[in-house]
Amino acid sequence: MRLNRFLYVFLLLGSFFIFSCNNDDDGSEPVPPRDRGEQEIADQEAIQEYLETHFYNYEDFQNPSEDFDYNVVIDTINEANADKIPLSESDLLESKTFTYEGVDYKLYVLKIREGVSEQPKFSDSTFVSYRGELLSRTMFDNSVSPVWFDLTQTIPGFAQGIVEFKGASGFVMREDNTVEWNNDYGIGAIFLPSGLGYFANGQAAIPAYSPLVFLINLYGVNEADHDRDGIPSWMEDLDDDMILVNDDTDGDGRPNFMDTDDDGDFIPTREEIIIEEDGSITFPDGDGDGTPDYLDPDYVEGQ
C-alpha cells in the first residue's frame, strides 16, 4: 500500500530515541567498550529472565472490549497474578538471529497480530506507534500517534523486529482530516539485546548496555529508494547482510543506496537499468561478463 502525500508529512515527527546516535564528548577519559560477544551472553540471560517473569495483556486481545485500544501492555508476574502465562511460554513469541559487528545476536518478536498488507524490508519507511521500555519496565520513549521511521536510520534491533510485521489493509479520512486505520494492522513487541540497540552509548534515559523492549503497532509501509535511481534501497544490499552502508561499488564513500552512479562511470544508474511498465526492473549486462551494466565501470554502451 502506497500512502498518500498527506500522511507522508509525518515523516518529520520520528522519535529521537529509536534513531542511532552517540553521546557528546564531555571531556572525560574514554572507557573502552565491553566485548560484544560477552555482552551478548549477559544480555540473553537478562532477556530470558524477563520473558519468564513477565506477561502481556493477552486476555484483552482474546476478548477485546468495545473500547479496547489494541495496545500491548506488559506487566510483572507476582503473587496476585501467578496464574498468568509468561512471555516465554507464549505461542506467539519467535526468535531470530541477526549478525551485526561480527556477532550473532538473538532478538525476540511477540507477533500478536502480523498485519495483512505490505511487509517492510529492512530499508523501508514504516508508520508506527510505539512505547520503548527498559527491562525494568521504565519507559524511555513513546508515541501514541504513529510516526514515520526510515529503518536505515534506526537502531538495528528495531528495524529487524519491525520487518516481521505487516501494515493495515487501508484507512479512511474522517471529516476532521484525521485518519482511521482498518483494524488489521500489525501488533506486537520486540525484545532486543544492547548490541542491537545503543550498546556502550547510553542515552539520556537509557543506561549503557541496556536490552530494550518496544511495544509496536505497524500501520503503513513505503518502499524506499533513497537515491531515487530507480532501484529500491533493499535491492542495493549486494552482500545480502541487510546492512546498506557497506555496499559501495565504486568506492567513492557513498554507499550504493545513496549513490546515483553506483559504478562511477559517469552514467547515471537510472540510465543503465530498465524499469518495466509493471514496475519490475531489468538489469542489462551489455558485455556479458556477469556484472550488470549499472555496477560495471568497464562497460560503456557503444564503446
TrEMBL record:
GO terms for molecular function: peptidyl-prolyl cis-trans isomerase activity. Residues 277-303 are annotated as: Disordered. The keyword Transferase does not apply. The keyword Signal applies. Its EC number is 5.2.1.8. It holds the Pfam family FKBP_C. It is an enzyme of class 5 (isomerase). Residues 286-303 have a biased composition (Acidic residues). Residues 123-222 form the PPIase FKBP-type domain. Transmembrane segments: none annotated. It catalyses: [protein]-peptidylproline (omega=180) = [protein]-peptidylproline (omega=0). Residues 1-20 form the signal peptide. This is Peptidyl-prolyl cis-trans isomerase. Keywords: Isomerase, Rotamase, Signal. It comes from the Bacteria. Belongs to the FKBP-type PPIase family. InterPro entries: PPIase_dom_sf (IPR046357), PPIase_FKBP_dom (IPR001179).
